[in-house]
Amino acid sequence: MNHYTPENFSLTQSVGFSINKARNLLITEMDTALKDLDITSQQMGILLSVHWNVATTPFELSRLLGIDTGLMTRMLDKLEARGLLERSRSIEDRRVVNLELTKEGNAIAVQLPSIAPVVLNRRLKRFTKAEFEEFRRLLNKFLAE
């Protein structure tokens, strides 16, 4: 079913506009909350993914976080330069780069689960539990291919 046509399309009333605006708002608020740790919300995603072993290679991180490989490389360069993670070649396959957090990277990663929920809960405070669950369901449906 087509929800938009050239006749009814309006930039500010489109789902894409609202999702982008919500993303930008959330990134700004999360970046502010992470300022004392001197990391960004995108770097938070990398640190938590590696810390929780959800993704341990640049390729896996790029797919999981929806970040192109060029930007991912630059972000990993910065985190490595800060001493938060280390890259090493796989012994089994030299084409694969494995990522591991340093002691300092892990120290930051363990603090993140107490910071991110504060930002998210502040945005979701007007949602009932049922609305929150429906919102998550609909977002997952939107993201499904």
TrEMBL record:
SMART domains: HTH_MARR
Keywords: DNA-binding, Transcription, Transcription regulation
HTH marR-type domain boundaries: 1-144
InterPro entries: HTH_MarR-typ, WH-like_DNA-bd_sf, WH_DNA-bd_sf
PANTHER family in UniProt: TRANSCRIPTIONAL REGULATOR, MARR, TRANSCRIPTIONAL REPRESSOR OF EMRAB OPERON
Name of the protein described by the UniProt record: MarR family transcriptional regulator
Organism whose genome encodes this protein: Paraburkholderia dipogonis
